[in-house]
Amino acid sequence: MNPFRVHVPATSANLGPGFDTLGLALNLWNETTFETGAARFRLDIEGEGAQSLPTDKTNAIYAAFATTYAAAKQTPPAGVHIHCLNRIPLGAGLGSSAAAALTGILAANHLLNEVFDRGQVIALATELEGHPDNVAPAMLGGLTISAAGRNGPLTRRAASPDLSLVVVIPDFRLATKKARRALPDSYSRADAVASVGRAALVVEALRANDRALLAEAMADSLHQPYRLPLIPGAAQALAAAQALGAAAALSGAGPGVIAFPPADPQPVARAMQAAFTAAGKASRALFLHTSADGARVKPAE
């Protein structure tokens, strides 16, 4: 088969109160080229993770590729060459692991003549990831809502917001397992009710491009109060963005903080980075935009 390329966007999950439920696709893309018929397996990486990610068959992309073949009761091709151009930062709260899972699944599914439909692809990726909040927007684009269903994840694209934003990522690693362990086993009724209402308002604010509503609705009581203390400077960065009128939240479990500035994003980014600097952490700012497009497979150019 001719070489082809899998494009998968970065995503930001939770968006404040939408814990494990809301996700948003962003215009930062990983591009992975697949070519079969080579003499042997080869995987090489350019960009983010080039010095740290494995290049053997333990790589998450190949693992998802092989898992998809196993689900189809087929054997993956022996001589496959995979070239990864990674733009999504690792461990930043921008869905890099979901992007890797989807990349491998979509590539295998393409070679298997689309044996799995879109819902099944999301289910396969969710099984690998553990939850669909990054998988759904990466696959469908736009703003998505996800929940557990009787026969797998329920996912719907709720809107295609057209918004600029900034993500500030500190030089700090927060393991997802540690971020999960920080959460309580139960919540008060008041916190649960507040989260339901605010999550619905976040969806409406993004649909209507209402940044003022978004800034108020993005408050969270389910995960951020427990995770922010784990990330030096994150609470201060969040407050700095909010002081300038921006809606802000941890991106996923962090450590990145996402903000939707009301106007020029530069002052918001500078204020957030200053907060991390004061906490002794260097950081970088990514000036991004929401993406209406989700993952896709195209011929390699």
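(ticket continues) Second input and output from the same batch:
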Amino acid sequence: MSWRKFLIIPKVISLQRRAPREVGMRWNEYWASVRQTGAHGDVLWDADSPREAQRYLSLLRQHSDMSLPIIDVGCGNGRLTRMLADTFPFALGVDLAPNAITRAAEESHGIGNLAFRSLDMTAPAVGQQLAAELGDANVFVRGVFHVLDRSARQTMAANLRDLLGVRGTLLLAETDFPGSSLDYLEQLGATPTHLPRPLERAIAAGIPQPTRFGNAEFAGCFPADQWQPLVTEATVIGTVPMRGMDDPGTVPGFLAVLRARQEVPDNPAST
């Protein structure tokens, strides 16, 4: 990465100038601005990557109770929720932005075993409320924790624990880019004279800047005394093509499959 990356900064500042202050409004206005999804669309993380999707499904089949419903947290336009609905008896996609939920429902018309709901999974006790409705559930999260601050990460992790209950399994996939924010922009195709359209839209909306989420961040959110990791591994997170259709984008990532540890009584009854 060269010094030329610093020439990207004025463009970024200019684009972000009119973004709303409140994070929820930023996400909602972002989804309102989306005209097209998929490989040719505006949503940079809306990759149609069969290899990535099959890795998720393989791990879920291996480690999950497949009779439970699954909740897709940060579902966006519902691309992966629909994939999960093909495998699980029921899939619920939740997202902070009502406009994302509207888009997901439109793109999922006619599929009977899934639903979508606008929900802030960083709000305290939301997991308890949803668990009271659905019971134990599996949870899928792709690309949410890396745009949350420390406090929001902690609250979301607690909510996910409540959703899993005793039988559920969590699959988590996040970007884990090792460089600076400017290096990340270059990775996504930014130059001093050009920003790929999906990237420009995200910056203009003022959606939270992504940060690294790898082993250290995972351990901070999911401490070993509360969580049982089943799988942790490096992975690749797909983006829509950013440098032409023959060059689908990828970002280094981190993947984990885990369950909530259950409390052990101080004096368990003998058998």
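Agent notes: The first strand starts at residue 70 and ends at 73. The chain has a mean pLDDT of 90. Closing as not reproducible unless the customer responds.
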